[in-house]
Structure formats: structure tokens, C-alpha cells
Amino acid sequence: MSDPRLPRFSRRAFLAAGASLPFYNEITLAQNSNIGPIPEGAVRLNSNENPLGPCPEALEAIFSMGRDGGRYYFESGPRMAALLAQQEGLPATHAAAFAGSSDPLHRAVLAFTGKGRPLITADPGYESPAGAAEFTGAGTIAVPLTKSWAHDVRAMAKAHPSPGLIYVCNPNNPTGTVTPRADIEWLIANKPAGAIVLLDEAYIHFCHERRGSEFVAAGKDVIILRTFSKIYGMAGIRAGAALARPDLLARLRGFGTGFLPTTGMAAAEASLRVHNLVNERRQLVEGIRDDLCSWLTARNISFIPSVSNKVMIDVKRPGREVFTAMAAKGVYIGRSWPSLPTHVRVTIGAREEMERFKQVFAEVMA
After folding, report:
1. Secondary structure class of 255 (helix, strand, coil)
2. Residue 173 forms beta bridges with which residues?
3. Contact (CB, 8 A) for 271 and 54
4. Residues 61-88: tens digit of each pLDDT
5. In what order do the strands lie in the sheet with 310-314?
6. What's the angle, vertex CA 156, arms to CA 94 and CA 152, rounded to 5?
7. Closest-CA residue to 30 (of 50, 51, 48)
8. Is residue 148 a contact partner of residue 178, using CB atoms and an 8 Å limit?
9. Pick from 96, 118, 287, 333: CA 20 to 30 A from residue 162's CA?
10. CB neighbours of 294 closer than 8 A, spacing ≥ 6?
């Protein structure tokens, strides 16, 4: 039986409209921020991408699977998801593969929010799920981060008596900061009845925080999102997963066909099998990030301390001005958020990219 509190639209209508939905893809986000086409050879520090790209094992898997690209290989997604579940200490039934993590994120908003059941999120935070909530008519309540840049879980739990979904991105995008484990545990234990906690761990591999798999293993009302776009360097290849109880995953499946890019699934599975890949890449990003932060500190430039692959830098003037000036010099940085209008988000790139950033940033700030 359908829930009368949720919006009434068919899966067919959703799929037909998908390509034009305002929240559906990052190309739309780029157009909305007036970035336009980025010239060849420019330094790209605007989208939290990983310049390392896929590991060699993933590239080999892509090539191998590409030769059979005329086949659907429906088993490739479940096989990757089962391997991830095994590594997380979960049954295979508690993991589902998707083409990246944005897909299950939006499905979760569509499945669990609706009229009278809004989305609760952080401010500043990743804004994409709010577009899905607008589409459903559910609406979004944005709760300011704490003074330590963590999610204010107590305020989020009190924001509405019957929210559909409480979204926690940890580490947070754009700030790159973490919400303590104890706060997340408190939120799960004290959230309004019937609400689902959506724990987005897209950036969890860049830090040393505990992952949330234990919440799923314990049968909590939690959906965890993972992606291969970030530390695994597969943003354009599209592979991700959701971890949750089978009944929650079943709610997500109704908003899509189940077709997955076999190259992405093969690359994801190969990446999961590479021992120490995550640790090595995390250490590399940490070193480059620490070098940038030391450089900023030496010049008395304020920033939000980050444990992720991006840093929010306070430029003390409208962030758009700095973005435009740097783009004119071939270095593209991230945007500002309405609640942090003088901050710009800068992705941690390769060492040579960050040296170029320092040079241009110093010129622009001067």
C-alpha cells in the first residue's frame, strides 16, 4: 500500500523526467554556477575530483570489460556490492550497487520525504538533495553547523516533528569537517520516529574516522552512501553503493531500472581488491593538504581546518570575485555557499597543481 503522505508520481514519469530534473546531474550544477566550459590545460580544483584517476588495476578491468561492452552483465553490480559488503562485515543483502552515490542519494529523498515529511540537512552542506526535496514538494530545513563545523545533531533532531530524511555528510561537503561519532550515535538513537538517517560517506576514506557500517549491521534506520568518485578517482566512470537493511534498499530500487555501467562496476570491484590503495592515497592527500594549510597559515589567510580533499578559504571578499580572477589565469576553484559568502572551496589537487594554485592565488589576493 502506498504512503498517502508521499508525493504521487509514477516511476515511469520519474524516469522520463529524469534528464531534465534540476537536481539530476552535476552538469546542471556547473551551468547554474556559470562556470562554463573549462579550457584545456586549466588547473581544475573546483569539483573535489581526484587527479590520480583510477588505479592501474581498475584501468585494466575497464579495458577488459569494455571489449564486452555489448553485453549487460547484470551480475557485475551485485558482485561488486557483495564484495564491499563483505569488507564492511555485512551480508550481501545489505549492499546495493549504483552508478555513483548521487543516484541513491536522490532516490532516498524521493523515497522517504514528501508533504509533511521534509528533508533535514546542514548549512553549509551539500545542496543537491535539497533539489530532490523541492521536486517532491517535501521542502528542506537547513540547520547551521556548530561553531566547530560539525552537524548540530540535536538541532536537526528538533527541526521538525516528523522528518522523512536527516542528511549527514561526514566529512561534510563543503567544509571538509567531521561530526563526532558520539553525535551521530546520539542522532540515530534520538531522531523522530520513522525518520531515516542518510549518512553520506563519500569522503570518509580521506580521514581516520570510523565508518558507519556498524549502524547497518545493528539494523538501525540508516542508509550509508559510498562512492568511487573521490579517493578511488572514478568520478566520470560512475560507481557507488548504498549500505542499509534490505527493506530500506528495496525502497530505493523503485526509482530506477537497475541498469549499471559494467565498466564502472568492474573498475570498482578491482579497486576494492587492491590492498592498501586507500591508505596510500589518503596519506598522499594529507601531505598535500597539510602543505597548503601551512602555506595559508604563514600568510595569515584564514581557512576551515579540513580532513578531506578540499579546503574552504576565507578570501575576505565576495568569493565569486576571486573565482573569476583565478579562472582568468587558468586556475578554476570551487564556489562559495550563501552562508559563507567570502569563503571559496578549493579541491586538493596534485602537487604541481597546488603550486600553480599558490602562485595564482597570491597574485589575486595581492
Report:
1. coil
2. none
3. yes
4. 999 999 998 999 999 999 999 999 999 9
5. 303-304, 310-314, 343-347
6. 100
7. 48
8. no
9. 96
10. none
